[in-house]
Design brief:
The complex is a heterotrimer of chains A (about 300), B (about 250) and C (about 210). Chain A has one domain: Arp2/3 complex 21 kDa subunit ARPC3 (Orthogonal Bundle). Chain A is about 75% helix and about 0% strand. Chain A is built from twelve helices and two strands, in the order H-H-E-E-H-H-H-H-H-H-H-H-H-H. Chain A has about 300 residues and is mainly alpha-helical. The radius of gyration of chain A is 20 Å and the shape is globular. In chain A, a hairpin with a 5-residue loop joins strand 1 and strand 2. Chain B has about 250 residues and is α/β, with parallel strands linked by helices. In chain B, the strands form two sheets. In chain B, strands 6-7-8-3-9-10 form a six-stranded mixed beta sheet. The longest helix of chain B has 14 residues. The chains are: A mainly alpha (about 300), B alpha/beta (about 250), C mainly alpha (about 210). Chains in contact: A-C, B-C.
Chain lengths: ~300, ~250, ~210
């Protein structure tokens, strides 16, 4: 999902850079306040770990293989702010040393993979941990959270590409979202397995990262929530109103004429091919249904991987 | 007699409760080169970490460590660390800077020295370990022997009075070991070396302290201890071959 | 370079970074102006409309000249450029169905290639520690710089550890089942995190031992 230079235009690059700088700055401030000095080197080492972990091939079928992206995993292990810093570090090194992702596109890549992925993944993980207890619950939570975070990051990426006019929304959204719904399954599974492996070998590393002060964390999450909402509002919302168009053509087909004026004019050029509009609406529906299916799968997987419920 | 290092009844427990050190006591005189011997798991590394206050994490009443007459407490860690140069077992843990120059300069920088003084110390330290001109090399590109020497240089650049080394010649090839031994011989500081390399002990150390399961089981002149085959075998060591052909004078 | 000859997947990115230290005029230039010029080139390339052909040709010529001066092997440069190919292909496919498609994908392709070549040249002629120093001078927060420095320093160490662990596991694996492989790989990755965590603590101790506060 690393966007190279040239795929997003100036205005998108500028806006994402500003939002990401604010997000990373906020994360750094949080880390400085919360992380004991003893764990400062852990940020750099976790970044090196993440990079090395991303290189590991998990064989799927034929010649294809899955890889860990790891934003949610790191957030579950180190907290959301540390995860933002760690993934940002990985992205910067990947950009400069390995040309994985463009320089001007750093803002977009950091927003999608460091901020959105880690924060949303963490939020969903924590919310689920409240309802599902024990290590089994955590394994389920991290699997589902990683899946959601992957899909949402992909949607944000699609939004940025569309806003730049590189790829129209009606193509980017279905393509990115559906592909990442599958990739996300691998991400969820790998995150869960790795989390479990860490727990089995060093359970103290897991409990160490349990939240200490709830109110403090709440403020942090509110801050991130605002940032993420802003980003989503800029990159996804303008296109979301093309969903009615997708549903429109379906409605037309079945004889109900139902015109809804879009809130904002959709910037993407219009297509004459109705099935592409339909794809957008269908993808949205599939996403909702898919979330439910994946959640159930995550529950089953948690049950399978952790034989008996253990108290954390 | 003033001791460089004075340890009295030192105790330490790991997080899981196992006793690592059960009342260790010994002294090292200034200028002496003492070897800390013992099988794996005897507590050597744990003991060394007490010498500059890294352990214990929280100071309790268990025993005392005095360096150059000063007790090691949370209040005087800075001056203690200036006087005690600790060379860690894994050079990759110690070489955390990207280039050799920056790593050797790290210590002097923390001491608050001026740029010119830092550069001078770095040059001197690198020359001392035979790596003059290595300043611009990247640390992760060095060979194992070179890494060990840069670690030593980094510690020498702080000009400590006491040099503490944890397994300095493990993983080195024979030439690396010879070169490192020659380096150590030239350093006048008080030395405490935890090692399995018995030949190093014979060549450099005048005194040996044997640690086993957290307790000092023997402490005395190196020749005497190392020649005591029964003692050596009992504590997971052996009488070094080099001594079979030598006699203490 | 450790890992560069293994058949494992870890080696791919290592081979893609040119470690040999050449002494070309480009290598010897100070980092700050190099980075500044590179940034200007990238911004200009991205912002300029595709109609400004002169600009793009000029940038291309400049980059080719720099590549020549830098003495970096051509084959290596070309292979690094190929990392763009999946994206370009994707955009091509998408825009192929559009009336204005061809022009659009050509514009994207040209801009990406020029920007990519700029970054390749910079990254292979400037040591990372110098790049970090420039970032420090533009007031990037110290915590981020430290994290970047430590990541870069321990990147290869951890990749070597990962290689070793996987080889050790593979030596004792006799089943071919995919589920078992996933379990094994996940255990290795988990172990890698634990190693990283423990090493971080030792590094902290080593930093304190030399007076870090």
């Amino acid at each position: 999902m690393h966007i190279p230079d040239g795929f997003i235009d100036g205005k998108t690059a500028a806006v994402t850079a500003v939002i990401s700088a604010a997000g990373v700055g906020f994360a750094l401030r949080q880390v400085r306040r919360e992380l004991p000095p003893r764990r400062v080197p852990l940020l750099g080492l976790a970044a090196a770990f993440l990079f090395a972990a991303q290189m590991v091939n998990f064989p799927v079928a034929g010649g294809t293989s899955g890889h860990l992206v790891g934003g949610t995993l790191v957030a579950a292990l180190l907290g959301p702010s540390a995860a933002v810093v760690v993934v940002t570090t990985v992205l910067i090194v990947q950009c400069f040393l390995f040309q994985d992702g463009g320089v001007l596109a750093l803002g977009a890549n950091v927003f999608n993979m460091a901020i959105l992925n880690s924060v949303i993944g963490y939020m969903i993980y924590r919310v689920l941990c409240h309802w599902l207890t024990g290590i089994r619950g955590r394994v389920t939570a991290i699997a589902f959270a990683a899946w959601c975070a992957t899909v949402l990051a992909a949607i944000s990426c699609a939004g940025q590409l569309a806003w730049s006019g590189t790829i129209p929304w009606s193509v980017a959204f279905p393509a990115m979202a559906t592909v990442h719904m599958f990739i996300g399954v691998g991400e969820g599974l790998i995150s869960a397995l790795v989390f479990l492996a860490v727990y089995r070998a060093r359970p103290d590393l897991i409990t160490e990262t349990v939240l200490t002060g709830q109110p403090q964390r709440l403020g942090e999450l509110v801050g991130y929530g605002l940032l993420v909402t802003l980003g989503v509002a800029v990159f996804v919302a303008p296109f979301a109103c093309s969903w009615p168009d997708g549903l429109d053509s379906v409605a037309d087909k079945f004889g109900f004429s139902h015109k809804m004026a879009p809130l904002l004019p959709a910037p993407a050029p219009n297509y004459q091919v109705p099935c592409i509009h339909w794809a957008v609406g269908a993808t949205a529906v599939a996403g909702a249904a898919g979330s439910l299916i994946v959640f159930v799968l995550a529950l089953l997987m948690g049950r399978w991987l952790v034989p008996k419920p253990k108290d954390l | 007699m003033n001791s460089a290092i004075e340890i009295t009844n030192l105790k330490y427990r790991y997080h899981d409760g196992t006793e690592a050190l059960c009342g260790v006591s010994f002294r090292v005189a200034p200028g002496e080169c003492a070897a800390l011997l013992g099988p794996n798991g005897s507590g050597k590394s744990t003991l060394l970490l007490h010498l500059n206050g890294i352990l214990p994490e929280k100071l309790s009443g268990d025993g005392a460590v005095k360096v150059l007459g000063e007790p090691v407490t949370t209040k005087n860690l800075e001056p203690i660390r200036r006087q005690v140069g600790l060379v860690f077992q894994d050079p990759d843990d110690q070489l955390f800077c990207p280039t050799v120059q920056e790593d050797v300069a790290f210590g002097p920088q923390q001491l608050g020295l001026g740029d010119a003084e830092i550069a001078a110390r770095v040059q001197k330290a690198l020359a001392q370990v035979g790596l003059a001109g290595f300043g611009r090399r990247a640390t992760h590109h060095l060979s194992h022997g070179e890494k060990r020497r840069v670690c030593l240089a980094g510690v020498l650049a702080c000009e400590p009075a006491i040099l503490v080394l944890d397994e300095p010649t493990s993983d080195l090839d024979p030439r690396g070991r010879r070169e490192f031994k020659a380096l150590l011989r030239q350093i006048p500081a008080t030395k405490l070396i935890a090692t399995h390399d018995l030949e190093l002990v014979v060549e450099l150390c005048s005194r040996a302290i044997v640690l086993d399961r957290g307790s000092v089981v023997a402490d005395g002149p190196m020749f005497e201890l190392l020649n005591d085959e029964k003692l050596m075998l009992e504590h997971g060591l052996e009488r070094p071959h080099i001594l079979r052909h030598q006699h203490p004078h | 370079m450790a890992g560069a000859q293994t058949e494992g997947p870890v080696s791919v990115h290592l081979v893609n970074h040119h470690h040999g230290w050449h002494d070309s005029p480009v290598h010897r230039l100070p980092a700050a102006p190099k980075l500044g010029v590179a940034l200007v080139i990238i911004v200009a390339t991205v912002l300029a409309p595709i109609q400004w052909k002169v600009l793009f040709i000029g940038v291309a010529v400049l980059l080719v000249l720099t590549a020549g001066l830098s003495q970096l092997p051509l084959f290596f440069l070309f292979r690094r450029l190929l990392v763009l190919s999946p994206f370009v292909l994707g955009v091509v496919l998408v825009n192929a169905f559009q009336p204005a498609g061809r022009d659009r994908w050509l514009a994207v392709a040209i801009k990406s290639v020029l920007c990519l070549l700029t970054v390749i040249l910079i990254s292979n002629t400037t040591p990372f520690s110098q790049i970090l120093r420039v970032l420090k001078s533009i007031r990037v927060p110290a915590l981020l710089i430290t994290t970047l420095a430590l990541m870069h320093r321990y990147l290869f160490v951890l990749m070597d550890e990962s290689d070793r662990m996987r080889r050790a596991r593979a030596s004792r694996t006799f089943t071919r089942g995919r589920k078992f492989r996933w379990q094994t790989l996940a255990t290795v990755v988990g172990q890698l995190f634990i190693c990283a965590s423990e090493r971080a603590e030792r590094i902290y101790d080593a930093m304190c031992a030399r007076g870090w506060k």
